[in-house]
Amino acid sequence: MNSTFLDCETQRGLNIAAFCKDFNEKTKDIKEGIPIPCRIKVNADRSYELVMHNPPASFFLKQAAGITRGAMHQGMSLIS
To answer: Is the pTM of this model over 0.70?
Structure first.
């Protein structure tokens, strides 16, 4: 997690220690390096909802192709 996220959520009154513990518990079985999009909704009573989604399809496509990144300009450059 980056400091911008933590600063923003601290201003909303979110208990960072509890959030980090919950986040770590939910991601303990996920292999390191796999991007997991998350949605966090902070309620007025300072509780939160943490929703985790599946990794993006582009991650799996690049992994299957054995590449680290796609072409920067579609149709104009080759992937490496």
So the answer is: no
